[in-house]
Amino acid sequence: MRLVLRPSSGADAQRAFEIQSNWAVTQMLRMASFPPDRAEIEAWFADHPREWAAGEAYRFAAFFDGRMIGLVDLDEIADDEGEIGYWFEQASWGQGFAAEAATAVVLFAFSEVGLQSLRSGHAADNVASGRVLTKLGFRLLDQVERPSRSRGETILQCRYRLARADFAERDRLFDKTDAQTL
């Protein structure tokens, strides 16, 4: 197994701050600020255990060789649906980590949380993120203009959806996830 995923906590905030201090990473995060606000990140990570306990969001710190390299999360949970998102340090891009971690969290969403569908989205200029989603079986719904906090402008966002039934048909993914979830 290459990745270890574990519920994120306040202890992960410093590493997240370091990762989001890279413009190449943060420009792709619609809701993040740039430069990052350390106190805001610390408060957000400190709230993760409460969100988990309440069933509001499930956020996983992704580790490779004992080092946090990113985060994958499931949030905006309502009416048997949630939204999956992910971000990774730039040094880990192009190595399949996002797909590996997202696969594990999609499995978690459908088998453990019991969701029936997932949403996701990415900036239109982030084609690598789109490849991750389509590899998982997400289908493009549309493209809409959305405000981007990190960029301070409106971006074109590609929005996707994945139904549990569609994912279950892709049984090869159920057998191929290498991420270990703790």
Automatic annotation (TrEMBL):
Record keyword Transferase present: yes
Keywords attached to this entry: Acyltransferase, Transferase
InterPro entries registered for this protein in UniProt: Acyl_CoA_acyltransferase, GNAT_dom, N-acetyltransferase
Domain spans labelled N-acetyltransferase: 3-161
GO molecular function: acyltransferase activity
Keyword set includes Transferase: yes
EC nos: 2.3.-.-
Group of enzyme by EC: transferase
Protein name as annotated: GNAT family N-acetyltransferase
Organism: Bosea vestrisii
